[in-house]
Amino acid sequence: MGLQSYRDLIVWQKAIELVAEVYKSTQSFPKDEAYGLTAQLRRAAVSIPSNIAEGQGRLSTGEFKQFLGNARGSLYEVQTQITISEKLQYLSGAEAKRILDMSVEVARILNGLLASLD
Known about the structure:
118 residues, mainly alpha, 4 helices, 75% helix
C-alpha cells in the first residue's frame, strides 16, 4: 500500500513534533516578545508541516518540490531564530541544542525526499 496522505510522510510527522517543541519552548519567552520573536518563531515552525501538506496535495511533482523548498526555507528560519533565542538567553544551551537537533533531523529527511523526486 502506497502513500495515502501527507500524514503518512515521516517528514511531516517529525515537523509536527518540532512545532510542538517550539511552542513549549517559547512559552517562557519574555512577554514583550509575544509579537516579536515568539510569534515569528512559531509562525516559521508551523509553516514547515503546512507547506509539506500543501505540496503533497498538489498535482505535479514540480509543485510538490516547490512547497518542500518553502518548507526547507522555513526550517532554516527556525534554526536561525533558535540560535538568536539562545544568544538572547531566552533558551538554555540544552534547549536550543534539542530543538536544533530535531530540526536537523527534519532537514535530513526533507532533503532526502527532495532528492528522491529528481
